[in-house]
Amino acid sequence: MSVVFRMQLRRLIRGRKLRLGAVSCALVVFAVVAARYASERDVGADRSIELASEAIAEGFSWGFFKLLAFLLPFLFTSAAISEEVENRTFSYLAARPIGRFAIALGKFGAGAVLAVGLIVSSGLVLHIVGYATEPSAMFEAFPETLRTLGALSLLTVFYCAICMLWGALTPDASGVIAGMYLGILEFCCSFLPGYFRCVSMNYVARQIAGYEPKGLLPETAPEIAPVIGVSVILGLTLFVVFFACLAVRGSEYRFAKA
């Protein structure tokens, strides 16, 4: 598994996907920081801290939970199996003295490490730059940022597992199926009223981070304790990773190219 992990990690680092993910993170951070300092016009220290907190909170809410948390797992894991099948290299990989479980776990681990690494590093940069003019507030708000980054990390690993599962089940349409799942069940369902939004782990992660519900009839949205939310996302992640490994192990992949 460690060999597959290193090979996949090197492949992602040398490819275009890492550069695309890094550029996306940089654009999100730049947009939030620009909005934060553009709204500051000769205000007092207290108001400056409020503006920084609001801008960073909205940046995490929309730039990270609603964009990067979907984009990075999709980039790094949705095609982890399908690209081997399309390039006709999966048979060579599977013929080596290594189990298919190890192949799936190694590829999943490489994608998850890169995705979480970009999320966490971008979030820390956003926190530092956003509170650059208020050093005391930077340290006071750091635990809240760590809580948000923890929730984002859990969500990112879960989305990596989802993309890996659909890539293993449908290698010919891995991007389409994974994108539809994330777009419908995770993004759209997070705005539904009442308990319907609990279908989305994005909503659960936002509850872990302590964000207020938004969308349709937010007053009907249930509150989820952080301990329960963490347990649910971790449990589902392990469940999905296990079935992704079973799919890789039990599938007889055929080549689309002659």
Question: Would you give an account of this structure?
Answer:
The model has no long low-confidence stretch (mean pLDDT 88). α3 packs antiparallel against α6 and α6 packs antiparallel against α11 (226-250). The protein contains eleven helices and no strands. Helices cover 75% and strands 0% of the residues. The two termini are 30 Å apart. It has helices spanning 2-14, 16-38, 45-77, 82-86, 90-95, 100-130, 135-140, 142-169, 174-187, 201-209, 226-250. With 258 residues, the protein is mainly alpha-helical.
Element-level helix/strand string: HHHHHHHHHHH
Number of helices: 11
Percentage of helical residues? over 70%
Low-confidence regions: none
Shape: globular
Distance between the termini: 30 Å
Main sheet, how many strands, which sense, barrel?
none
